[in-house]
């Protein structure tokens, strides 16, 4: 699996592990690097079967398997204690790590995540799969921005989006891998008792204008976790780490500082 380690290399550096959403690629987190690498060791990776981590995923692929892959990856690089920041599917990976009682997991930040798939989100994925089957990767990629970003942000960044679309089509993953990753996130549904066993300090970040995952999913998940708090923003869409990086970076730094220094989180 492809891994990148940025920022501090000293033994005392707190380590942040970023886990991406359905796309699975490390480069999703580029807007966070400059803000965090002076204070932290930052670990990015391409999830198995995506980007620079090519593999044929099994038919029964699961979120639990993705979490186990993270554990193996970190152990192979001698990474002990860490804080997991996950977006959507990557947030589910964080929950699975906590459920597995993964050693070294000190806190969770879950962005636009859920404990079970909303009917709205399921309908969005159904449309995306039909686009892929009927029109191919180019149509799937072009539609992706509609689910990720607010309309005004798309309009202001259309040239960059169009350039990115060409790259995403050229590097599009095997269709079976994508469908199996979607099936894995749709099947992930830990029960209330399991979620109540998660003790790590947890920050949930949601956006009221998220067109893919209703923000109420984060509210429900916050209520199910015993040591969680919710930070909800009006603007940013599903990918607010990209559309509003300054806001997200500031939020991350405040939460991480509260966990590391055992102080009250200041929203």
From TrEMBL:
Keywords: Hydrolase
Annotated ranges, domain Peptidase S33 tripeptidyl aminopeptidase-like C-terminal: 194-257
Hydrolase recorded as keyword: yes
One Gene Ontology cellular component: membrane
Name this polypeptide is given: Putative carbamate hydrolase RutD
Protein family: Belongs to the AB hydrolase superfamily. Hydrolase RutD family.
Gene Ontology biological process: nitrogen utilization; uracil catabolic process
Ranges for domain AB hydrolase-1: 14-121
Gene Ontology molecular function terms on file: hydrolase activity, acting on carbon-nitrogen (but not peptide) bonds, in linear amides
């Amino acid at each position: 699996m492809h891994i990148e380690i940025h920022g501090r290399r000293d033994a005392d550096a707190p380590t942040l592990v970023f886990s991406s959403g359905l796309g699975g690629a490390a480069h999703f987190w580029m807007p966070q690097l400059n803000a965090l690498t002076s204070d932290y060791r930052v670990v990015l990776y391409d999830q198995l079967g995506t980007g620079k981590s090519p593999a044929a995923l099994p038919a029964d692929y699961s979120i639990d398997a993705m979490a186990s892959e993270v554990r193996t990856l970190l152990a192979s690089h001698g990474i002990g204690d860490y804080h997991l920041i996950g977006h959507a599917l990557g947030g589910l990976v964080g929950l699975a790590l906590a459920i597995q009682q993964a050693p070294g997991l000190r806190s969770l930040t879950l962005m636009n995540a859920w404990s079970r798939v909303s009917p709205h989100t399921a309908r969005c994925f159904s449309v995306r799969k039909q686009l892929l089957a009927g029109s191919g990767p180019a149509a799937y990629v072009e539609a992706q921005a509609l689910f990720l970003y607010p309309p005004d942000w798309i309009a202001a960044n259309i040239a960059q989006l169009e350039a990115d679309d060409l790259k995403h089509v050229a590097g599009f993953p095997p269709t079976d891998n994508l469908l199996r990753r979607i099936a894995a996130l749709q099947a992930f549904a830990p029960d209330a008792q399991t979620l109540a066993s998660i003790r790590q300090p947890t920050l949930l970040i949601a956006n009221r204008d998220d067109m893919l995952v209703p923000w109420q999913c984060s509210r429900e998940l916050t209520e199910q976790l015993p040591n969680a708090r919710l930070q909800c923003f009006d603007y940013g869409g599903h990918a607010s780490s990209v559309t509003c990086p300054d806001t997200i970076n500031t939020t991350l730094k405040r939460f991480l500082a509260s966990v590391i220094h055992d102080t009250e989180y200041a929203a």
